[in-house]
Design a protein that fits this description.
This protein is α/β, with parallel strands linked by helices and 320 residues long. It has 2 domains: 181 residues, FAD/NAD(P)-binding domain, CATH 3.50.50; 119 residues, FAD/NAD(P)-binding domain, CATH 3.50.50.60. It is built from 6 helices and 17 strands. Strand 4 and strand 5 form a beta hairpin. The longest helix has 22 residues. The chain is elongated. The model has no long low-confidence stretch (mean pLDDT 94). The structure holds NADP nicotinamide-adenine-dinucleotide phosphate. The site of NADP nicotinamide-adenine-dinucleotide phosphate has 20 residues, from helix 4. NADP nicotinamide-adenine-dinucleotide phosphate binds next to helix 4.
Length: 320
């Protein structure tokens, strides 16, 4: 049998990130018999784990909570022998002594791997308005699932007009007495089905063509100042909760200067999830793409795993 003898190394594949993309990649590489470690960020949570209800993941007609879905992904990956370590990745570099290897450094330990799959996802974007940081955890939130129940029979505002804002606004109607969606345009970006539900929901009101100018309060939030996009006129809305869903920022700092990123910081890949660096693949929300969903992240994860398998087969001289 053919094959190339490589110097010792720790893993065939290291997956960085424990969301839908990372765990799907882990299911595929571990099942393919590749020695795989998944580094699950210790200081960040996957966005899916704070999503209340996922009702468009195929095969689960009644919908499922994000954390529960992730647990199912994880159990399936563990069954195939995926190793999981809850550690942040501090840096990534090519080995000086053997360029076939990537060195993944977690601070306490460094691992040598033949390939790396970036599945680091993205985090909520902040608005940067006065009061936002000051009142974080005191009324300002980026997670309706986590904080919604605190606002039973209270008024809240939601900022944003995308799927996240509208889905979470709908969720907040289970608790709040009034949910005002503040959006900078005169129409929503969110999917039609969510818009339809939001427009039919009596507890949801809209402040169109308006931006959040300031979060107001003393010890806790008492309201927000909003500003009209056209006239600049401001007005105050009383609210005890401010939920901000204005998009995401990719978690890609570890890959900066190693792989090519787009202007917004997302990792550029081809259709096979290959990045500009040999042996590094990317999957899920951290990569530049059109549609960020659990199902598309899972698809990316499978593709990245397959590409990594082919790449490793070539390195080992085992490719058919
Ligand atoms: P998004 O689609 O990028 O929407 C962000 C929203 O925030 C937009 O309406 C945007 O306004 C607004 N915004 C951005 N910066 C702002 C600023 N500085 N001031 C005021 N408003 C600002 O982000 P997302 O809703 O988090 O969704 C991200 C991805 O996840 C999307 O692909 C989405 O489809 C997906 N997702 C899907 C589901 C689902 O299927 N159930 C749920 C959640 C998320 P403009 O419209 O004017 O740009």
């Amino acid at each position: 049998m053919g094959g190339i003898k490589l110097p010792e190394y720790d893993y065939d594949v290291i997956i960085i990130g424990g969301g839908p993309a990372g765990f799907t990649a882990g299911i595929y590489t571990a099942r393919a018999g590749l020695r795989t470690l998944l580094l699950e960020g210790a200081s960040t949570v996957s966005q899916i784990t704070i999503t209340d209800l996922i009702e468009n993941y195929p095969g689960i007609p009644d919908g499922i909570n994000g954390l529960d879905l992730m647990q199912l992904f994880k159990n399936q990956a563990l069954k195939f022998g995926l190793e999981i370590l809850p550690k942040d990745t501090l840096s990534l570099s090519r080995s000086d002594t053997d360029p076939a290897f990537w060195i993944v450094n977690t601070g306490e330990k460094s691992f040598r791997a033949l390939s790396v799959i970036a599945a680091t996802g993205a985090q909520w974007r902040k608005l940067g308005v006065p009061g936002e940081t000051e009142f974080a955890g005191k009324g300002v939130s980026y997670c309706a699932t986590c904080d919604g129940p605190f606002y039973r029979n209270r008024d809240v505002v939601v900022v944003g007009g995308g799927d996240s804002a509208i889905q979470e606004a709908l969720f907040l109607t289970h608790f709040a007495s009034r949910v005002t969606v503040i959006h900078r345009r005169d129409r929503l970006r969110a999917a039609g089905i969510l818009q339809k539900r939001a427009f039919a929901e009596k507890k949801i009101e809209f402040a169109w063509n308006a931006t959040l100018a300031e979060v107001l309060g003393a010890d806790f939030v008492t309201g927000v100042k909003i500003s009209d996009v056209g006239s600049g006129e401001t007005k105050t809305i009383n609210a005890e909760g401010v939920f901000i869903f204005v998009g995401r920022l990719p978690h890609t700092s570890v890959f900066n200067n190693i792989v090519q990123l787009d202007k917004a910081g997302y990792i550029i890949t081809d259709d096979a999830m290959k990045t500009s660096a040999a042996g590094i693949f990317a999957a899920g929300d951290c990569r530049a793409k059109l549609f960020r969903q659990v199902v598309t992240a899972a698809g990316d994860g499978a593709n990245a795993a397959f590409s990594a398998e082919l790449y490793i087969g070539n390195l080992k001289g085992e490719a058919y």
